Amino acid sequence: MAGYNIYFADLHFHTNYSDNRDRATIEDMIIKGSRHGITIFGTADHNHNLDIIKWKTQVEETKKLQSKYPNFLIMNNCEITFLLGHFVVINPEIIRGTIEEGYRFLYTKRNIIKILAHPNPGTDEWHTRIVPFIKGIEVVNGSVFRKAVKSGYKFRTALDIPMLHSYSEYIAMGYPVAAIGNSDAHGLSEIGSGMTGLYLPEKPEKSDLLYAIANQKTFATTDQGIHLKCSMDNARHEFNWQISWDPEITDRTDKYTVEIYNRSDRVAVTENSGKIKATEDGIYWAVVFNRENIAVSSPLCYKKTETEYFSSMRLNFENKLEKHAVETRFKNTLKDIYWLELRKKTSFNFSPVKKSVKAEIEIYSPTREPLITDALGNKINFRLSSPASYRTIINKQCRNPCFDEFYIWLKRNEIHEYMFFNIDYKNNGDLFILNALLVPAKMVFIDNFGKKYRDISASIKKLVSSKTLYKLTVKTLYKLSIQLDFDSYYFPFEINKNRSEIHNYLFWINHNYSTAYKIPKSTRQAWENIFQIFM
Question: Deepest in the core among 6, 43, 130, 283, taking most CB within 10 A?
Fold first, then answer.
């Protein structure tokens, strides 16, 4: 790209404002990251750790650092965490540290750049519903990738890596999103393990960064010595990829593999730069990897995957869904998404006069009685007015150093928006077995609930040594009704006189959204009934 240079950014790392295990300051992380060639920095402390005072304090500290280091671009991002997964919001003006505000911010701020953090089909309940709301996917999470490599994790193809598997599924639906690489560092040793390469003008500003992400002018990598540049030549029907290495940084003695994908299908495997014939409506992207490093391009479309007409239709549909979600989920009566149950009763009534589509949504108040008492007699209100279930989020064996972060969780009695409810542990020779149950923090009505787990943390440390092997199982209790579900929405279209326009709209919705968003059968049938009227 003429007039553009490659800059490296880490837009997701944690500081002493949240859960940095070294209690490293923003400046500490910047200095360490700059040694890895990073010049664009974005803190991403958790929203539940940042109240308004802390957020403003962090912003003021960052402004001073920006003046002190004018050759760097420094900003404050925020990682919004909740049951469905994690978002990194780029350079927001303000963040409130509650789950409700996280949801509100996520679903109402269309012009804010949101990045899906460390997607993993085994732990994050995305189910493709969040795609219209994001601009980038964290396909390289340096901390996770480095741990996988050290543990001996083997992958034959790029799609054996869970984050890339998720990435391919999002691209397969026809939503180009920027490839983002970050360290997700929770300590000084991790920053520099993942970064985003961006094509930016000289002396870039924040607006240049946001534009590059929104327009997929990025690649993700674990190593600043790998440069991956892709282009689409529509005139020649070709997708091109160019790979270059900085010999002073990257060791080329270990062979690299290059894989080219069209949506989620691998279409070429090589070891060098090259090109391939592009097909109609293709979305192409490249991956370069060996046993220790990886680089992933953003996707490029061959021609347009949807017409301008249907693009405007899609945006109209999404906007109305957002508006409806806000109206139903964030009224004053809906102060906590964990406590209230949305139940839907949909009736599609066709009037020969208005011909309008209507739906009714009923709100049921939950029970107020504490339903569970823990071993210490503390009252826990799970508000079980709807079905509940358990999900295993951690199930692994590891040595003591890998357990350090769990000690931090115990000490604070939190893992993101969850709190510990029960912990069982025992020594079995050199194997230390620990089982923990987490519950959403908003369900716990107890002061000083964390003391119990601070004591447990101290007890565990006395029982184990550096050679101890841990078997760690962590489960969460969650309510099924809080998952985003298209059955909670209504059909957002007022039927007008333009029957042809509605026919096309319904056809596109029925045959695209039904597949892409795994819409419940009942809703698909309702749409099909509407569709048949206009056939």
Answer: 43
